[in-house]
């Protein structure tokens, strides 16, 4: 359910593993793409999930989750009792908790399974995911997870997976802001663009996330794998979660303002590493020589 940039390649991987897959999306264009890849499509959400033992959803936000899942025409009401719902979106613990209650009332086993990774790597099967919910159900459907993710970390019976995803994305957002400041400072200090990227790649801070972004920054590629608007949405979820559990997230709040500025400047659909260009503008730096 939901075959956008993440959901469609995930569906293709599940089908490639030998499982019968039926997909649905509100977008006729996405349904057409699914047909081109040999995936069966349904005419409605209810048709897609009717009689299915496992349903996987990939949705953009809390609003979409509530619209798709709840109510008399929602997915939960249409699913078979004893079916398993694997929900892979990045959503709030509150929305997820409401879904848990609705699923339980209909006899559906609910697994929170937000995935980590970008649209550019989904088709390779390199996504990872965090899972929480009934452990016995996770063990039973583990082969389905293995069809579209390379690693799965089970974290507990409740909303633990939601907090894990937000915690990871918080570090990614702060890292993007940190890289922007570091690169601007280095350029002001006279270091050539490619030289400083090599310094980062060869240094103690060369995490997978840093190397993932230095690769695109070498050619100044800001095409969105994960946009500024998406990062702002996740930071809103992160800040809401922090408020809910009493954790002050001062860095998250600061970085959220940075993404607000980027969106206001027209970079909503630019990749989230556009923090680099934002700091360059603030620092009076022009485009570097490549």
TrEMBL record:
Catalytic residues (positions): 165
Keywords: NAD, Oxidoreductase
InterPro entries assigned to the protein according to its UniProt record, in alphabetical order: 6-PGluconate_DH-like_C_sf, 6PGD_dom2, 6PGDH_NADP-bd, HIBADH-like_NADP-bd, HIBADH-related, NAD(P)-bd_dom_sf
Domain called 6-phosphogluconate dehydrogenase NADP-binding: residue spans: 2-156
3-hydroxyisobutyrate dehydrogenase-like NAD-binding domain segment(s): 163-278
Keyword Protein biosynthesis: no
GO molecular function terms listed in the Swiss-Prot or TrEMBL record: NAD binding; NADP binding; oxidoreductase activity, acting on the CH-OH group of donors, NAD or NADP as acceptor
SUPFAM superfamilies, per the entry: 6-phosphogluconate dehydrogenase C-terminal domain-like, NAD(P)-binding Rossmann-fold domains
Top-rank taxon: Bacteria
A Pfam cross-reference name: NAD_binding_11
Protein name: Dehydrogenase
Organism from which the protein derives: Bradyrhizobium oligotrophicum S58
Lineage, top ranks: Bacteria, Pseudomonadati, Pseudomonadota, Alphaproteobacteria, Hyphomicrobiales
């Amino acid at each position: 359910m939901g075959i956008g940039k993440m959901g469609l390649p995930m569906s293709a991987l599940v089908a490639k593993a030998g499982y019968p897959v039926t997909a649905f999306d509100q977008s006729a264009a996405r349904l057409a793409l699914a047909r081109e890849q040999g995936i069966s499509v349904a005419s409605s959400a209810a048709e897609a999930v009717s009689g299915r033992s496992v349903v996987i959803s990939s949705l953009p936000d809390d609003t979409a989750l509530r619209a798709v899942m709840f109510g008399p025409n929602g997915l939960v009401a249409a699913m078979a009792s004893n079916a398993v719902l694997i929900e892979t979106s990045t959503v709030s613990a509150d929305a997820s908790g409401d879904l848990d209650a609705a699923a339980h009332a209909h006899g559906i086993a609910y697994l929170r399974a937000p995935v980590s990774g970008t649209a550019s790597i989904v088709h390779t099967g390199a996504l990872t995911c965090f899972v929480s919910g009934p452990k016995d159900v996770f063990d039973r459907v583990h082969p389905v997870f293995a069809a579209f993710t390379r690693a799965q970390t089970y974290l507990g019976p409740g909303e633990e997976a939601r907090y894990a995803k937000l915690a990871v994305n918080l570090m990614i957002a702060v890292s993007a802001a940190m890289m922007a400041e570091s690169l601007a400072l280095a350029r002001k200090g006279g270091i050539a663009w490619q030289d400083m990227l090599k310094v980062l790649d060869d240094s103690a801070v060369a995490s997978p996330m840093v190397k993932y972004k230095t690769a695109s920054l070498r050619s100044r590629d800001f095409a969105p794998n994960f946009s500024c608007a998406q990062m702002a949405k996740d930071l809103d979820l992160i800040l809401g979660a922090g408020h809910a559990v009493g954790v002050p997230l001062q860095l998250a709040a600061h970085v959220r303002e940075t993404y607000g500025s980027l969106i206001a400047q027209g970079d909503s659909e630019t990749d989230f590493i556009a923090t680099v260009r934002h700091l360059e503008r603030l620092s009076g730096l022009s485009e570097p020589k490549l």
